[in-house]
Amino acid sequence: MDMNERIRKIRMDNGLSQDQFADKLGVSRQAVSKWESGQNTPDISNIIRICDLFGTSCDYLIRGISCDSVADPDVADEKKQTGKFNSKKYFLYTGAGLAGILIWCFVPLICGFWKGYELEHFGQAFTDSTEYIWRMPVLPISILGSLCIILAAAGFALTAFRIRKKNI
């Protein structure tokens, strides 16, 4: 698709006639007609105005390249390999890692509450709160936090390894 076709597509996607499009840009209808037929190209100020008014990038309008295809080399590489970028797995890895970190942040609080509970109900407790990490119900919570962090680290490592392997 050439620039003249992209200009026409932008105009048509916004449901504008050549007159309306020209009015928005402050040019004549004949100028728009020449741009769309390929007889002439808009100057840089009109290209910038088209991009600003219709929310597209200059790269797309001039070269036909979408702006997200060149932003991040890893993302661009994955798009090249699979045809699309699967952001769901990155959100999964990030979410798992954050969940694990949050869980581990709450372990000392849980240990303190459990120690207070034992003191109140049984009159005795361990002097070191870390002893509670190995007791129920803190142990399953600790294991869950560790598994979340391991899942995130493994997911990111496998993704980086796959991208590096494809580049070799």
Topology (elements, then pairings):
Layout: H1 3-13, H2 18-25, H3 29-37, H4 44-54, H5 58-63, H6 73-82, H7 87-122, H8 138-167
Helix pairs in contact: 2-3, 7-8
Structure described in brief:
By secondary structure, the chain is mostly helical.
Report what the structure shows.
It is a single chain. The protein has eight helices and no strands. It has 168 residues and is mainly α. The protein has two domains: 3-69, 434 Repressor (Amino-terminal Domain); 76-167. It is rod-shaped and about 90 Å long. The protein has helices spanning 3-13, 18-25, 29-37, 44-54, 58-63, 73-82, 87-122, 138-167. InterPro entries: Cro/C1-type_HTH (IPR001387), Lambda_DNA-bd_dom_sf (IPR010982). Keywords: DNA-binding, Membrane, Transmembrane, Transmembrane helix. Residues 7-61 form the HTH cro/C1-type domain. It holds the Pfam family HTH_3.
How many DSSP helices? 8
The portion of residues forming beta strands comes to under 5%
Q: Please report the distance between the alpha carbons of the first and last residues.
A: 32 Å
What's the structural domain tally?
2
Characterize the main sheet: none
Task: Please name the defining characteristics of this protein.
168 residues, mainly alpha, 434 Repressor (Amino-terminal Domain), 8 helices
